[in-house]
């Protein structure tokens, strides 16, 4: 598996706001917000369900990772996906840093990835 998720009991926009707040509680900021639904409409004239990717970053942990392996930025930030399902429910999914950073063969990265995973699981659990 390369991710883990949860379903929220609130609407799409509120799910995004709650996710951002929960990320902040764990020391993450959101560097990027990609509105895939709007992009697909603008570029391909496709109407789709709400689908937003948040690029989350914990500066302290990112600094440690970049210090250990400068090219690790290719695998950052941690993507968090908020999507509306066909039944109207909302799923919030998280990239699993252990799976992704497992590609990096450097001492300390595995432990660091575990720390990031624990924080993202706390975010998931708080939603």
From TrEMBL:
It comes from the Bacteria. Residues 34-97 form the DUF302 domain. SUPFAM superfamilies: TT1751-like. Pfam families: DUF302 (PF03625). This is DUF302 domain-containing protein. It comes from Solemya velum gill symbiont.
């Amino acid at each position: 598996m390369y991710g883990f998720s949860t379903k929220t009991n609130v609407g799409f926009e509120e799910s995004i706001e709650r996710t951002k707040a929960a990320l902040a509680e764990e020391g993450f900021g959101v560097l990027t917000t990609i509105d895939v639904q709007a992009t697909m409409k603008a570029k391909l004239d496709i109407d789709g369900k709400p689908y937003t990717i948040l690029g989350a970053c914990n500066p302290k942990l990112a600094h440690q990772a970049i210090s250990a392996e400068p090219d690790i930025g290719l695998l950052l930030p941690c993507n968090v996906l908020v999507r509306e399902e066909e039944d109207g429910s909302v799923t919030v999914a998280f990239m699993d840093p252990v799976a992704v950073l497992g590609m990096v063969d450097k001492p300390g990265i595995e432990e660091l990835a575990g720390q990031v995973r624990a924080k993202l699981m706390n975010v998931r659990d708080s939603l």
